[in-house]
Design brief:
Layout: E1 10-13, E2 16-19, E3 21-22, H1 24-41, E4 47-51, E5 57-61, E6 63-67, E7 71-77, E8 91-99, E9 104-108, E10 111-112, E11 114-115, H2 131-147, E12 153-159, H3 163-167, H4 172-175, E13 177-178, E14 180-181, E15 189-190, H5 195-211, E16 216-220, H6 223-231, E17 241-242, H7 247-257, E18 261-267, H8 268-271, H9 289-299, H10 304-311, H11 316-325, H12 329-348, E19 353-360, E20 364-368, H13 372-378
Parallel strand pairs: 9-12, 10-14, 16-17, 16-18, 18-19
Antiparallel strand pairs: 1-2, 3-15, 4-5, 6-7, 7-8, 8-12, 11-13, 19-20
Helix pairs in contact: 1-2, 5-7, 9-10, 9-12, 10-11
């Protein structure tokens, strides 16, 4: 039986029908819910129904059930739909026990990574189970306990038998997550991301804007950019086209479509890559964020020790904190941001006007390229 109902299980991207999947967080939630139900009822459970943060219900098969007097474990096989990643097909397992302490206590076992560095969703020492899956697990377990009249505590251990092997193919070790994979997912649903289909979808959305008479396009890589646009007074009421990681391709399409200008608004975590000429910002293509920041910091006057600290950072916000402490953030951005404009201009070969505004969730607006003010005035205009 399909985990997602037929009417919600597919999405059309660029004219192609693609199948949605569910995240490792949803797997862990379903396994935890089923395991607790078996622990408290003493009866096998063959499926679990959960509601995802996205609002899409899931009906997930339960496998590898082991019922003991004081514990129950079971597994859910990860299904990434038509966006299968390294975790696709892996068993995400949960073992549950009654606890003498009130509440639901979550930890990771074999194959679930352990956080060793600051700057991630979880603090050092915690299992790499992000806060949204944790909340999902707690809610699901508490619902079962309430339904079955159990008022005590529950210990939940999430484990992934093949997790250590899978983690070798991910960026976890570089991020400071050791020993396994991360349990992730903000929506609970994996949206299909076929590159060809996604580019087609971006182009289709761009064409709609162009057909409305818009010659100057506002674009953002993702949700951070969308949230910034909503809160930025100069862009009030504007709807951006999402370019995802395909910034270079978006610029190519804008030229081809006859646009006269593109204003790019994005978090520095994405846009810093443009300063190094990396026009597809997906981490599988390149991740030189810290190298680019460190080299520009040196040009701004940073010493070798500061550069080393930046190179050791996990996130751009961490690196900005280093620069801020040294009084070099403003100077570094003044050197780095023109390089973003240079590479955008190089991509469009001067055929259209381009500009960028970059920001940080921690430090706000970091700067903009010289042409940004002009494009800010024009992105909402129609011919």
């Amino acid at each position: 039986m399909a985990a997602i109902r037929e009417e919600e299980g597919y999405v059309y991207v660029g004219g192609r029908k693609l199948r949605r999947g569910f995240t490792t967080g949803s797997c862990a939630t379903a396994a935890s819910k089923a395991a607790v139900q078996m622990l408290l009822s003493g009866k096998p459970v063959l499926f679990a129904d959960i509601m995802t943060p996205r609002g899409i219900p899931l009906h997930i098969d339960i496998e590898n059930i082991e019922m003991h007097e004081d514990s129950v474990s079971c597994a859910v096989r990860k299904d990434g739909g038509d966006d299968a990643d390294d975790t696709n097909g892996a068993y995400i397992c949960a073992e549950v026990r009654r606890s003498s302490e009130d509440g639901v206590h979550i930890d990771g076992g074999i194959g679930v990574g352990r956080v060793t560095r600051k700057g991630l969703d979880q603090p050092p020492g915690n299992a790499a189970i992000n806060h949204v899956p944790r909340n999902m697990i707690v809610e699901a377990v508490e619902d079962v306990c309430q339904a079955l009249g159990y008022a005590g505590g529950i210990d939940v251990r999430i484990y992934v038998p093949e997790g250590e092997k899978i983690a070798v193919r991910t960026f976890n070790s570089r991020l400071g997550i050791v020993g396994g994979i991360s349990i992730l997912g903000t929506s609970g649903i994996v949206e299909p991301m076929s590159e060809t289909a996604l580019l087609g979808s971006i182009k289709a959305e761009m064409n709609v804007f162009m057909a409305e008479g818009r010659k100057y396009l506002l674009t953002v890589p993702g949700n951070y950019g969308k949230d910034f646009v909503k809160a930025y007074p100069a862009l009030e009421g504007q709807t951006p086209v999402e370019c995802s990681n395909f910034i270079g391709d978006f610029l190519d399409m804008a030229v081809e479509a006859g646009a006269e200008g593109v204003l790019l608004v994005g978090n520095l975590g994405k846009l810093v890559k443009l300063a190094g000429g990396i026009m597809n910002t997906h981490s599988r293509n390149a991740d030189s964020r810290m190298e680019i920041l460190a080299s520009n910091a040196i040009l701004a006057g940073a010493d070798a020790e500061t550069a080393k600290k930046i190179l050791g950072c996990i996130s751009t916000d961490d690196a900005l904190e280093v620069l801020n402490e040294k009084g070099l953030m403003k100077q570094t951005m003044e050197i780095l941001i023109p390089k973003i404009e240079f590479h955008m201009n190089h991509r469009v070969k001067g055929d259209i006007k381009v500009a960028a505004i970059t920001f940080s969730s921690e430090f706000g607006i970091l700067g903009q390229t010289p042409g940004a003010d002009e494009l800010l005035r024009k992105v909402g205009a129609k011919e």
